[in-house]
Amino acid sequence: MSELLSESLLRKILFERSWDAVILFNSQGILESNEAAAAMLRMPDTESLVGRQPDEFLCDYQTEGSSLREKRLRIEALLRQKENHRFDWLCRRADGDEFACEISLTSVKLSSGEGFVGVFRELTERTIERAKLHRVQSRLNHALNGGNVGLWDWDLGTDEVFYSDQWHRQLGEVPGTLSQYVDWESRVHLDDLPGAIQRVQDLFASPRIEYESSFRMRHASGEFRWILARGKVYRDTAGQPTRLLGVHLDVTDQKQHEQRLSKELHLSEVMLQTLESTLKITSLEELCTTVCKQARRLLGAEIAGIDLCHSLNQKLEVHGRSYSSKYQDAMPSEAVPSTAPEQWKRPQAASPVPDDIASCELFRNLDHEGVLLTPQQLQTHPLGAALVQRTPHRPGLRGLLACALYDGDERTLGAIWLSDKEEADFDPGDQAVFRQLAYVVSILIVRLHAEQELRDQKELLDESNEELEQFAYVASHDLQQPLRAISNYAEFIEEDFGEVLGDEGRRFLRLQVAAAKRMKKLIDDLLQYSRVSRDEAFFSEVDFQEVVEEAIRRLEVAIAETGAVIRCEALPVVRGIESRLCQLMQNLIGNAIKYKAADRNPVITISATEQSEHWLFTVEDNGVGIDAKFYTEVFQVFRRLHDGGNIEGTGIGLALCKRIVQRHGGGIWVQAAAQEGSQFCFQILK
Fold it and tell me: Has this prediction a pTM greater than 0.85?
């Protein structure tokens, strides 16, 4: 019994008097500790440690760079072996101060279950610094790996190079397998190698220390990756380079993005040039030739074509669908580069338009997205087979990109296609640009067709107008002689047989003469109207002030009879036909006098305003005015809005004014005056 007490006392003495910190703990926390433990952890006393978890006094990082969790898992695995174990820990005192200690850890059996006894011995500052260095290295490795940064260190004396694990991974290599300068040089793209070596040599030959270079390096998979190298050269006391240290950044994604942006910019510029070059195109043949040339330039293909459906002014019904057939006169253009072999350069720049129903069905099966065929698909797809059959002089075509052409009503116009590209396939960017081009071509085809229809209609209208004018001129001229005869005979009868006829007979003769004069006035106006467009007089400088004065002189009698007041502001000099301009102003002023209000004298104001390309003239009156619904009709031939009363007229005067103004490059219209009456406005080109 005494021996047992002595042993217990001895253990207590060793526990309490030990210079080393001793802690007894289990899963619930610290059960007991000695004074040395409280002092080491800078706790007030041993009681303050009871119930605390040992982890509270351990650092998150450990001496070898591992985390606390990683190290604890390894230690727990060792303790399961029921043996004593010794290892180093980084600990933290209650005040936050860090320190290193050696720990001896033993598993013990307690009445409450399994426990552990830990003996802690504080180590030197060197251990702490080593742990901090491990921590920095660990963080650096995480940063390099996370940022895909490869580290390299080239010893220029031995030509050996340290390549980090991430450097190896960038190129798909097994870490630790490469260590020589030639390992770098042999992987640089042959096109980039001379420049890369030259930049290093330039660095060594200059006083600079900073190094930067970009080049492509071959990946283990065979592809090439873009690498940005940055580093610093170190020199000896004589200034000679001894070491080059730096990093590799994989910038492949960035480079590819830059290349895509550059390509898109180039494609946009070419697309803009294509649009500009088509603005003045007037024929489908010219459009096809221009677009095919630009398409080859735009996307790098060697053959480009446009096929259009059906013949002019026909309609085909295919399986219940109506096909527009208005573009046969445009041949599908196939442009071959000047570098092509002579046997590829055919005299004709096009092959016949497929005008059969099957071809149109073939185009209809395309959609706005288009179709992309590989060299293998060319032989089996209907479009590809048709192209191969039509181009026997081009063996081994390397792909086809085709897109349908539609009008605004989604009717098939044909197709635009490219083939024989430098590379086997067209990339998605090419396809997107090609779809845009097809859309633009569709719009241009519809525009050209509409313009052609407009020209055709204009030609028919001009021809019809010319025939009508010729008829009016001839008819009016031929009517003059019999009309003069009627008028003259009536006057002769009145003079010679007036007394015999009596008052009633003479009244009938006077009515006949008046009717003949009105008919002559109508014929004269028709002649004037028809002569305006046939007028071959030359344009000259005309003082519009003098034009108005001449018109006023011609209307002196009417002005005097009505008491009309004419106000004329300063008027410009214009280019025109003086006689026609006098006729224009005489008609406008005469109408203002003729259609005066019953309760006031006519007041007519004439003015002019300068515009960018025209002079704008206004003739404003205070007369009876014109209903707004007749503003357009008043310029039609024989259209009279004031048929009642004693106002004479043929209904040709304003129509003649319109034709004279159009002859001078302008337009004419009427609107309500500011106060009352009407305001006639017309333009004359400067």
Answer: no
